Amino acid sequence: MTFPFADAPNTAALTCCHVMEGQKPILYVSHDEDDGMWQFLCGGQHETSEGRLVSLHEIFVQDPSVGELVYMPCGYHAEREAADAPWRIQKKDIEGVLHMAEIPHETGELRFRYTRRLSPDGTKWIRDGRFEEYCQNGNLVSEGYYEDGFEEGYWKDYHDNGNIAAEGVYSCGKEVGTWRFYDEQGRLEEEETYGDA
Ligand SMILES: [Zn+2]
């Protein structure tokens, strides 16, 4: 299995004794805003003495499903109800004031679903957090994250038939690193490398 994180496999990560000893599954993952530290916890309340320092690689071997979260930006956390339930990714700290927007196509099907918050002066909405756009057949057109109104982190675009059309990383609304573009059959058509990743 390929190690999927951008961080080195020996990067230190925080977990708890319950996860370490296999008593409980990982139900809470945090990618810390200040230092980029990953935390993989069982979801309960913890004393400092229950914390354990491990490598990202150890955690990934123990539970490869955390690989679904490799593109979760710093400042976000993910929770799930059980080891086989889907992750719910949310932005830290401002959860309470984030507003979920759902905007339909003219014909009624869902087109956009994203989180946003009001600007400090209350005059406009700023996209912040998860963003999804759908076509009328219900397939995803585009998915990724906004940070303070700008695209940030890993984004994917899709063809109407559901196959991936493009993938790459944004930083402050600009493409960075290598972007890959695919035709409708999912074949790689083009790679383009932008500024510093
Ligand atoms: Zn625990």
Write up this protein.
The chain is mainly beta. The protein folds into 2 domains: 12-87, no CATH class; 95-194, Alpha-Beta Complex (Outer Surface Protein A, domain 3), CATH 3.90.930. It is 6% helix and 46% strand. It has 2 helices and 15 strands. Strands 7, 8, 9, 10, 11, 12, 13, 14 and 15 form a 9-stranded antiparallel β-sheet that branches. A hairpin with a 5-residue loop joins strand 7 and strand 8. It is globular. The relative contact order is 0.10. The mean pLDDT is 89. Residues 16, 18-19, 24, 41-42, 44, 46, 50 line the site of zinc ion (ZN).
Largest sheet geometry: 9 strands, antiparallel
Rg, nearest Å: 18 Å
Structural domain tally: 2
| Count of alpha and pi helical runs | 2
In percent terms, what proportion of residues is strand?
over 45%
H/E series:
EHEEEHEEEEEEEEEEE
The SS-based structural class is mainly beta
Low confidence ranges: none
CATH architectural category of the largest domain: Alpha-Beta Complex
> How many strands appear in the DSSP assignment?
15
| CATH topology-level name of the largest domain | Outer Surface Protein A, domain 3
How do the helices and strands line up, and which of them pair or pack?
Blueprint: E1 12-16, H1 17-20, E2 28-31, E3 38-41, E4 51-55, H2 56-62, E5 76-79, E6 88-91, E7 99-104, E8 110-118, E9 125-134, E10 140-147, E11 150-151, E12 153-158, E13 164-171, E14 174-182, E15 188-194
Parallel strand pairs: 1-3
Antiparallel strand pairs: 1-4, 2-3, 2-5, 5-6, 7-8, 8-9, 9-10, 10-11, 10-12, 12-13, 13-14, 14-15
The structure holds zinc ion.
Zinc ion (ZN) is lined by residues 16, 18-19, 24, 41-42, 44, 46, 50.
